[in-house]
Amino acid sequence: MFGGGGTAAQNLVRDAMLGRVARKERFTALDIANEVTANDPHRTADDLRLASDTVHRLFKDGLLTPLGYAPDSGGTFGPVSSPPLQVPPANVVAAVGGGLSTEQRVRAAIHARAAKREPFNTMEIAAEITRTTNPDFMTVVTLVGRIANELLPGLGYSLVSGTWRHGIVPPPPPPARQQQQQQSPPVRIVPPPRAPDVVTNSYQANPEILGLSADELRKRAVKINPYRTAWIGRVDTIPPQSDERTALIDRGLILRGLLNEVQIAEIHRVGDLWLRFHDADRLATAAAFKTADAAIEQIRAAKLKKREERKKASEAKEAARVEGVAKRRAEDIIFLGRGVSRGLTDRRAHVEALLQLGLPVWGTPADVAKGLELTIKQLRWLCFHAEATRKTHYIYFEIPKRSGGKRLLSAPHVLLKTTQRKVLDEVLSKIPLEPEAHGFVKGRSTVTNATPHVGQGVVLNVDLKDFFPTVSYRRVRGLFQSLGYSPAVATVLGLLCTEAPRRKVTFDGADWWVAVGERCLPQGAPTSPAIANAISRKLDRRLRGRLGKKGWVYTRYADDLSFSKKTFTRGDLGFVHASIRHVVEDEGFALNPKKGRAQGRGGRQDVTGIVVNVKPGVPRDELKRLRAILHQAKKTGLEAQNREKVPDYRRVLEGKIAYVMMVDRAKGQKLKAALDGITG
Fold first, then answer.
1. pTM for the whole thing?
2. Over the range 597-629, which residues count as b (16 or more CB within 10 Å of their CB) and which as e?
């Protein structure tokens, strides 16, 4: 039954309709119904009615309208005037991927290309069909060609050079060839060369032969035996005119108008010259063979001499290069490792700026070595950067932090530490700092850092995260260049004062220290605090300028930033914290979110460990602990109070009491007197 097919039945009706449209035939719904049920011996009237209804439903779904077909008043479907581009709707094109036969897939693929007015050829459609199914490729190619010739002319396509293109009218067939009488090209008459005034030809022309007519020439030629002449078969020369056969040939050329007498004379003149000189090259070759051995020996001797000269020149050049390299290595530094040697060839220094700051004038690595009392070899060893090395210039160890965790310290070896102290004394200590910087500055301390915040309404403390590791080698090199030093000197000093964080790795039985990050300020080098302070100068200026206008007081002790103000509101804290974060991040640093705190007047206010509510003072619990230790030590002795077994415990207590005396002299003197009274 036709109705039992469902989607398959609808596909049959659709294909039948598209076939009629492709052939530009007019049809009715009953025509389509008869066509799709013709092979069913059991078809019924219901089958015809169902097929006819399917035709009308597909028309309502828009199958035929884009193809320019519409029913007339009698229900016959046919093309309308001025049809649009005849392409199927999307539901027809989508049938390419459905469960259709190969022919139906080909038709759908062609309609899909035509809907986009794309140019295509038979091979493209065949490749598209065989990509998803497995029919024979050449069978599909033949099928595509047949269906394309059937459908595409009605869709406005033309076959041009093997490609179907839309809207292109094929060129008209070429007109029939008309037999045209070929005209011989005009003969270019080359004027013959002027005959020489005197023909110096040893073979004189035979006037008797030259005077023969054409008939006489034929009769005379019959009597000549060509094999009796000495010139028969010669292809290496031009026979002379004295030869009878040659004279007859010359006469024939003249009679036929191919050559004239002057040209014949010129040809034989060239032949005479050839006979005279054609053996000259062989004579020269024979002479050369006689002296070949001597010539070869002479050439060999010349080549050997040149080889020896080149060898000596190369050896001298190599010796000069080695000497130059050795001299440069002894007197200069031009390479200190990959990625850090870029500026070593630039020796231009700003001498006026260096003199104005009172800094030593160094323009080359040799100047640095001399100023730091090192040899070039020692300076190269201290500065050289290697990604992996067996021996480092630092000793790495960890200490616990007060806030938890561990801090990695890098203690330089003796030679590097001594050199860094010289850099600190000669260069870094002369860099002017901002008044807000108190850490590691001569004449300033935690007391001077805390004093400006005494008696304020609020104290805000923030901490910079990874202060020293944030200061990279590039920033350090830029600092020295900004002072006026040349890029070469700035590179050397930057490498002296920085080191890459390293990890110990064992490879092939040997221990290696491998760099795991960019070079930065090591925690433990004597130059790191001074460099960090110098790089933070702009940070100090910006924070002072931005917050000073709002009445805030600002100081910095290394990575501890402290701010205070007499009167404040909660909105002030939000503004100041946002301003601090913006400036700090803009200057290449980052805040530590775990260490920021605001302290009001109602509680203890401390800055870098010093209480600043009324006056600078040591925290009360610290004083109580020291008094308790001294009180108990009078009864049991100092060693009994050394519960942590610290070596030289008295010196430890003396140091703590000295710190209290620095903050509050009166309280410190009382503690010192108590310690002096303890003898044990």
1. 0.55
2. ebbeeeeebbbbbbbbbeebbbeeeebeebeeb
With H, G, I as helix, E, B as strand and everything else as coil, classify residue 242.
coil
380: Cβ–Cβ under 8 A, 6 or more apart, which residues? 329, 333, 336
Kindly state the tokens that stand for 77. 């479907």
Name 168's Cβ contacts closer than 8 Å, sequence gap at least 6.
158, 160
**Helix %, strand %, coil % of the chain (to 5):** 50, 10, 35
Separation between Cα atoms, residue 450 and residue 559, nearest integer Å? 14
Token pair for 431: 């860099």
Asked if 369 and 362 touch (Cβ cutoff 8 Å), the reply is no
- What is the pLDDT at residue 257? 81
309's tokens? 């000269």
Average pLDDT over every residue of 142-146? 85
Cβ atoms of residues 469 and 535 within 8 Å = no
Condensed to tens digits (0 to 9), the pLDDT of residues 419-477 reads 999 999 999 999 999 999 999 999 999 999 999 999 999 999 999 999 999 999 999 99
Give the contacts of 577 (CB within 8 A, at least 6 positions apart).
460, 462, 596
Q: Compute φ and ψ for 156, nearest 5 degrees.
A: 85, 20
Residues 518, 520, 523, 524, Cα dihedral to 10°: 110
Report yes or no: 564 and 553 within 8 Å, Cβ to Cβ.
yes
What is the DSSP code (8-state) at residue 279? Answer: T
- Compute φ and ψ for 496, nearest 5 degrees: -65, -35
